[in-house]
Amino acid sequence: MPRATNNPASRARRKKIMLAARGYFGARSKVYTVAKNALEKGWQYAFRDRKFKKRVFRRLWIARINAATRAHGMNYSTFIHALGKKGVGLNRKALADLALNHPETFKAVLDSVKKG
To answer: At what angle do helices 92-101 and 103-115 cross, to 10 degrees?
Structure first.
C-alpha cells in the first residue's frame, strides 16, 4: 500500500509560514526553510522584547520625573521617598504624564510632598 503523506495539511502548514513571512527580504520570504527560521527568530525577539518594553518605559518615566523634580529643586529619589512617606498613590506612569502634560498639577503634588 502506498504511503499517505496528507498533502493538504502539509501544504497548509507551509502556506501559513509563507504568508507570515510576507514582506521579509529575499529568500526569507521565498524559501520555506529560510522563512521558517526567520519567523522563529522573529517570534523569539517579539517574546523577549514584550518584557523589555516594560523596562524601557519605566526608565523613560523615571527620567521625566527626575527632570521635572530637579526643575523645582528636588531630586527623583527624595521625591519618590517623600511620596511613599505621605502615602500618595500615584505610580511613575501617572507622575510622568503629569510632569509632561500638566506641569502645574505636578508642581502642586511636589509642593504637597515638600511641606511634609
So the answer is: 120
